[in-house]
Amino acid sequence: MTRPLLVIFLTIFVNLVGFGIIIPLLPFYAETFGASPLTIGLLFAVFSACQLIAAPALGDMSDRYGRRPVLIFSLLGTVVSFVLMAMAHSIAMLFVARIIDGLSGGNISTARAYVADVTEPKDRARAYGLIGAAFGLGFIMGPALSGILAKYSYTAPVWAAAAVTLVATAMAWLWLPETVHRAAAGTGMPFRNLAEMMQRPGLRRMLWIDFIYWFAFAIFQTTFALFVAHRFGFDVSQTGYFFAAFGVLGAVVQGGFIRPIVHRLGDKPTFILGLVCAGVGLVGATFAQTVWGFTIALVPLALGIGFGHPTVSALVSRAGRGDEQGRVQGAAGAMESLGRAMGPVWGNAALARYGDGMPYLSAAVCLALTLILSVTYQVTDSESALAG
Predict the structure, then answer these.
(1) How far is Cα of residue 12 from the mean position of the Cα atoms in its chain?
(2) 70 belongs to a structural domain
(3) Which 3-state string (H, E, C) describes 239-287?
(4) How many whole angstroms from its chain centre is CA 106?
(5) What is the maximum span of the chain, computed from C-alpha positions, in angstroms?
(6) Which of 54, 75, 119, 262 is the most buried (most CB within 10 A)?
(7) Residues 99-111 pLDDT 10s
(8) Domain membership flag for residue 84
(9) Helix (H, G, I), strand (E, B), or coil: what is residue 295?
């Protein structure tokens, strides 16, 4: 692993520890203010809706002015949002905190563009697998810390999230080299760029695949705490520990297995394999009536995430030129944010209206649609040239 990849890996890992602390906690924390399942879904959704607005602009800015300042700005915004969340006394303050985090939240798309800057196209799936491993490890340590600290108070994990994100900011400031020079950076209005990219057939198909894929996983992720609370009676600590255990397999797959699998099968077949595994896991989880049955169902789901997350990012990056990776990842981030904004609203509303099994079943249907779009997707000549 080169030093830039190591630094971006560590930065994203520490940041995702902070994010992982919040995921199992937020539904329970919001309920102390009287939040309904729909309101909890909106708390998750408003973050992604704000990212939808900000991601294209931040992606364009990272092409113009560099990845490093955008990444640092986004991490600082996350620190501010966690501090506000810890000091919240109402649902309104929770929404303000989530909005600030969303508007400044360009860290993941910028990190993906950074990876594209420092790797060859043939090596990107492995590099994105390292980023995925940072996600997985963050979702191991973060929820585990949340489970431990929630025994003291609901605000203790939030303060811890602010602290670890501040560490990530310092790491990026001190050690992350710049990869973009202003003289070579792209220009253009970000939303105009997004509209132009949607006119390119191969990239448009990949952006729609990206949207539906993240819509499905947003349903799973943001309804997880309420699902296990309703069906199995879990509290914050149990949810955090369970979420941490779930992250172990995904981290192992993305950190160790993804390279040989992609080398043997290729990006697209590996992504399709991930969709099938995740769909099987979601259907199994829908009908699981015991903790053990639910645990078994999560094994193929974790494998699907391990195969799918890095390869969908690699496929998106290969659909754009090298000098527009910030804008391409910004566009993908916008579509991902749209999926992550809509998924929690549907998932939590469906859970409240139709029962705890409906969110996961509908997520599986979305992955089936993604599978159809992916099987019929053909790499264009220009994308083949880029991939070579």
Answers:
(1) 11
(2) yes
(3) HHHHHHHHHHHHHHHHHHHHHHHHHHHCHHHHHHHHHHHHHHHHHHHHH
(4) 11
(5) 59
(6) 75
(7) 998 888 666 767 7
(8) yes
(9) helix
Tell me the per-residue pLDDT of 203-221, one tens digit each, with 9 for 90 and over.
888 889 999 999 999 999 8
**Residue 258 to residue 68: CA distance in whole angstroms:** 27
CATH code, domain with 91:
1.20.1250.20
Do 295 and 232 form a contact (C-beta atoms < 8 A)? no
Q: What is the DSSP string of 17-70?
A: HHHHHHHHHHHHHHHTTT--HHHHHHHHHHHHHHHHHHHHHHHHHHHHH-HHHH
CA distance 65 to 326: 11
What is the C-alpha to C-alpha distance for residues 153 and 333, in angstroms, rounded to an integer? 33
**CB proximity list for 81: less than 8 A, separation 6 or greater:** 97, 98, 100, 101, 104
CB atoms within 10 A of CB 9: 20
Establish if 267 belongs to a structural domain.
yes
Tokens standing for residue 106? 């360009």
In order of 33, 139, 235, 367, the CA distances from 148 in angstroms are 22, 14, 12, 34
For the ranges 210-219, 232-241, 284-293, 377-386, the lowest mean pLDDT is seen at 377-386
Query: Can you tell me which residue has the tokens 């810890």?
Result: 86
Are 77 and 124 a contacting pair, CB within 8 Å? no
Question: The tokens 């916008």 sit on which residue?
Answer: 334
The closest of 135, 98, 147 to 17, measured between CA atoms, is 135
Which domain range does residue 159 map to? 3-177+191-387
- Global pTM reads 0.77
The DSSP string of 334-363 is HHHHHHHHHHHHHHHHHHHHH-TTHHHHHH
Helix or strand holding residue 211 (H, E): helix 201-232
Determine, yes or no, domain membership for 184: no
Question: How does DSSP classify residue 383?
Answer: H
